[in-house]
Automatic annotation (TrEMBL):
It comes from the Bacteria. Residues 34-81 form the HTH cro/C1-type domain. This is Helix-turn-helix transcriptional regulator. It holds the Pfam family HTH_31. InterPro entries: Cro/C1-type_HTH, Lambda_DNA-bd_dom_sf, MLTR_LBD.
Length: 285
């Protein structure tokens, strides 16, 4: 591990990134060029002290997971992310693992949608990042590990995963999910993460196995989506998708028709979510 070069590289990228690039208010007393260390730490989901020790440089060797989170927080390109891994003494991640790193341009769009329910997902149905309103609407989908990261796997193995969908909508949703994971498995091939999800579901879910035998194919769909939320009830949403073909990811933005009951419920969720975050912050003090 080249601690000095890693620290210098992270510092230069931090100072080059402006608050407006990541949706952070600039404030009146900002003297630091670019972002502050605590802002990068917050964007990366790690403590300020931990990030500071990496950049100084001192402290333990950061894990690949931490380096991936920092790379995302700094909006690094894939090439820059791989460079960070090399400086830390790790080999660059495999292609399908690198797909977890969100494209810097896609992140810049995402950062400007913090008052909107939006999230970035990959072809495996794994949610990589969510806005606060998306968390309030759908729950924290980034907290899962292993096969449970995939909403396809959760849908067919965890009864709780279906509670947000009205019963009459579930059969069509099941078929769509099977079609999408089948496409991902065909694209990535044997011994891929998609292939592992399919193999597990064929063993664990008779419903999935039956649908798999029908070879469903997913087409474009812009139909409204109904979501059952514990706080506000049923919300009718339209999903708009921005694709990043290079990294097999999509930015999904949920909107409700202006003036509708669902639009009012989204606004209420925004207030409830802000109150929840404030309560969490106070509890942590």
């Amino acid at each position: 591990m080249d601690r000095a070069r890693l620290a210098e590289f992270l510092r230069t990228r931090r100072e080059a990134l402006q608050p407006e690039d990541v949706g952070v208010p600039r404030g009146r007393r900002r003297r630091t060029p670019g972002l502050r260390r605590e802002e990068v730490a917050a964007l990366s989901g790690i403590s300020t002290d931990y990030y500071t020790r990496i950049e100084q440089p001192r402290g333990p060797l950061p894990s690949e997971q931490v380096l991936g989170a920092i790379s995302r927080g700094l909006h690094l390109t894939l090439a820059e992310r791989d460079h960070v891994f090399r400086l830390a003494g790790y080999a660059p991640a495999r292609t399908e693992v690198r797909a977890d790193h969100v494209n810097a341009g896609l992140m810049r769009v995402f950062d400007r949608l913090q008052d909107t329910p939006a999230q970035i997902v990959n072809t495996l149905g794994e949610t990589l990042v969510q806005t606060p309103l998306a968390v309030a609407l759908l729950g924290d989908e980034t907290a899962y590990t292993g096969l449970m990261r995939s909403r396809v796997y959760r849908w067919f193995t965890d009864p709780d995963a279906r509670r947000q969908s009205p019963p009459e909508d579930r059969p069509a949703h099941s078929r769509t999910l099977v079609a999408r994971i089948a496409e991902a498995a065909a694209t990535s091939g044997p011994r891929s993460r998609a292939d592992a999800i399919v193999a597990a579901l064929l063993t664990e879910s008779p419903e999935f196995a039956a649908l798999w035998e029908e070879h469903p194919v997913a087409g474009p769909s812009c139909e409204p989506k109904r979501v059952l939320n514990a706080s506000v009830g049923e919300v009718v949403l339209h999903g708009q998708t921005l694709l990043d073909p290079d990294q097999s990811q999509a930015l999904v933005v949920f909107t409700a028709e202006p003036g509708s009951e669902s639009h009012a419920k989204l606004e209420l969720l925004g207030v409830l979510g802000a109150q929840h975050l404030s309560a969490d912050s106070l509890a942590a003090v």
